[in-house]
């Protein structure tokens, strides 16, 4: 299992002629929550996909002292790097239990108890077809399925997307609980208020480049950054 901080060095992601991520450097501290903010098309999701090995990239990704470039997706998952994708990506015609067990395919012993500790509502729905769950419950299932892979680094892509405010607060509580268990979290979010309330460090991407970085409270103190990148949100 990999351990240590994650370092992205001169990371580039291309989709044909489109240069989505343009030579960025990021440092993800182990055991902390790091958020990546920015408008649609800024390169946030592409950055997560590069870390988990889901897209081709140039540059280097190092975990601790170990370069993981060339490591296939399933090996990264085995080493604790797990993505919970945007749009949930659950198996809608399968039961809650079947979805959870699918998340544990790289582990010899599936630990449903861990998922149920964090998401007790899923235990009540264990035999329910996933597509019949509410939107919030589906998002919880998506995160729980990722937890089944026993991540050391959990990458969350837009976990609050399309959810009601009361459900978003529940998701925030879950993210805090997961982080308290020692899991490093990389959070991509359009909901800047939510992201900054959870994060220890924030990066703001603009057109594939790092436009700003720092602790959330420091970024919020800058009128320019708050107005230009954070929609005028105040701490």
UniProtKB/TrEMBL annotation:
Can you cite a GO biological process for this protein?
Answer: L-amino acid transport
The region annotated as signal peptide is none
The reply to whether Ribonucleoprotein figures as a keyword in the UniProt entry is no
Task: Return the protein name.
Answer: ABC transporter ATP-binding protein
Q: Which GO terms describe its molecular function?
A: ATP binding; ATP hydrolysis activity; branched-chain amino acid transmembrane transporter activity
Please report the stretch or stretches of sequence annotated as the ABC transporter domain: 6-232
Transmembrane portions of the chain: none
What is the protein's species of origin?
A: Fervidobacterium thailandense
Alphabetized UniProt keyword annotations: Amino-acid transport, ATP-binding, Nucleotide-binding, Transport
Protein family per UniProt: Belongs to the ABC transporter superfamily.
Pfam families linked to this entry: ABC_tran
Q: Which domain of life is it from?
A: Bacteria
